[in-house]
Amino acid sequence: MGQCIQVLVNQMSKQISSELDMRLRALESGSQQGEDLDAHGWFWLVVLGVLIPALLLAIGWWWA
Amino acid sequence: MTTESNFAADRSAWPLLLKERTWGQWRLGVALATAAAATWCYLIGEYTGYYLGFIQGGLALTAGSMIGMLLVLLAAGPTCIRFGIDSVASTKPQFGTRGWVIPAVLQWVSIVGWNSLLLIFFAKSLTQLLNVLGWLPSGVSGRQIVPMVTLLACLVVYAVLLRGAKGVSRLSNILVLHVFVGLWMLYLLVTHRWQDLITAQPALARPDPLWNYTTGVEIGISSLLAWWAYLGAMIRMAPHGRTVVVPVMLGMGAPVPLLSLIGIAGVLVLKVSDPSEWLRTVGGPLYAVVALGFVAAANLGTAVAGIYSSAVGLRNFSALERLSWSTVLVIAVFPVALVGMLIPDLFFARFGAFLAMIGVAFAPLCGIQIADYFVLRRGRIDIRGIFDHEHKGPYAFWYGVNPAALISMLAGCGLYVYLLNPLTYESHGSYRWLTASLPTALLAGSLFVVLTRLFVAARGRGDYP
Q1: Alpha-carbon distance values, B165 to B28, B150, B162, B236, B306 (Å)
Q2: Rounded CA gap, B340 and B146, in Å?
Q3: Shortest Cα–Cα distance, A24 to chain B (Å)
Q4: N or C: which end of chain B has fewer CB within 10 A?
Q5: How many angstroms separate the CA atoms of A40 and B273, rounded?
Q6: What's the complex ipTM?
Q7: Nearest to B22, CA basis, from B163, B165, B159, B176
């Protein structure tokens, strides 16, 4: 019984390794990588994450 | 690749391939909004309402939330978007192939904490409603109801998540409607009690108005930094950086301050932030039932997203990598059920300290990740290195741990506690101008750059260019 479980675990490990390796190779080739932030993404990041909070902070500090 | 392996990919910590990353802008935004809009918003609003009035509180929380979201997205976002991995896996280039356990534990504690809080909140609201409607059997009190409801909610979350990311997405499509119910509740309170609202004085406001405002901003930043734990598992389902920014900033960053207004308004006017309690005051039992439905929908959606992220994070441990998805789910859900059943009151009462702990831990973590990706590596990540746990792997550092990350993390935590004591809210130094989270992230990131350049990269460790 113990041996069976060990064999099963080893088989699963092997499957996981080969599956992971296939994924890593696909990502390393670049064909399966997601697209990084582009100019459009950075624009919205700056507007929503920097400019609007800065404006709100300025209003709040002025109010305070 | 087999269909079966495609099916299982979203239930593992493996990197996802482009064809498996099927969430578009809208789907991601809905899932994130459903995850973000929960009753913690009332608690966040309540804490802000102790120091600021309605309008100022709303402004401070919005500014803080957007800044917090920006930090989280810049920290975990680039690596997760490019390689389809979760937040925990994205820390291996900084912390090492063993050191990543520290962010993993942070993620686990954060998600268990938040979700315990949400489910206890729901259970308490239900108990209260049953009491008002006279449906609570004699001799039965919240002490019995809260643990039972928490357990039931955990079982529902478990059942939904057996379907993996698909379960999260499908549930979000239904539960996102609760955001509009939340806005309706806000409209009710504002229209019924506007005059009281704008004249109400915050209970714990200090004589220094700038300190009060900065504290509102800090509450926003530290609350949103907690999204680091959730973000990677969600955005890895979307394939393009350009489609991620707006859903994250608006879907996840905006609902929190918006719905927190309900908590601010509640605590200012009626001295209670739980809408199921004050809606009864405003509109009777029917409104209270609607509010309870809202609380249930909101917290369930968030708990599902949270437990999913936690389970994916746990998959990074090689011992859990081989277990079935259902077993990993049990491991992720069990602590939440345990807190809800054994120590609900104690946990609920310590929320403020917990919220502060989140800021202490995640601010330096974000600073380190941002500095590493944008300053030191300039976007160069070895994806194989993230999953290579051999002694000579690129991110092995020393015995799998990067001391530079640990020292920077500790220094950041120390600075945070100096600037703002998370338990007493006693502050020092430049806190009233700079908040505590921002200088903490800056110090941790800067120190990490210096230590890495002087000691780590100079010894050829960490695969730095």
Answers
A1: 11, 23, 9, 11, 12
A2: 7
A3: 6
A4: C
A5: 39
A6: 0.83
A7: B165
Distances (CA, A) of B236 to B50, B232, B383, B429: 37, 6, 14, 39
- Residue closest to B227 by CA, chosen among B302, B165, B298, B330: B302
Q: Is it the case that residue B87 has pLDDT exceeding 90?
A: yes
Positive or negative: CA dihedral B206, B209, B210, B214: positive
Answer for the pair B26, B36: CB distance below 8 angstroms, yes or no: no
Structure-token pair, residue B77: 């976002």
Taking the C-alpha atoms of residue B3 and residue B105, their distance in angstroms, rounded to an integer, is 32
First to last CA, chain B: 34
Q: Chain B window 68-87: which residues touch A at a Cβ cutoff of 8 Å? A: 69-70, 73-74, 77-78, 81-84
User: Do A57 and B216 meet the contact criterion of CB atoms below 8 Å apart?
Assistant: no
Structure confidence by residue, pLDDT tens digits, B10-28: 777 889 998 889 888 888 9
Distance, in Å, from the CA atom of B338 to the CA atom of B344, rounded to the nearest integer, reads 9
Over the stretch B116-153, which tens digit does the pLDDT of each residue have? 888 887 787 777 777 777 777 777 777 788 888 888 88
CA B115 to mean position of chain CA atoms: 9
CA distance B205 to B51: 4
Encode pLDDT of B401-441 as tens digits.
999 999 999 999 999 999 998 878 899 989 999 999 999 99
Q: d(Cα B66, Cα B86) in Å, to the nearest integer?
A: 21
Q: How far apart are CA B265 and CA B408, in angstroms?
A: 39
CA distance A8 to B325: 17
Contact: A57, B82; criterion CB under 8 Å = no
Contact status, residue B437 vs residue B222, Cβ threshold 8 Å? yes
Residue B120 sits at φ, ψ, to 5 deg, of: -65, -40
Which is nearest to B322 in space by CA: B103, B13, B7, B10? B13
- Are the C-beta atoms of residues B66 and B437 closer than 8 Å to each other? no
What is the reported pTM? 0.88
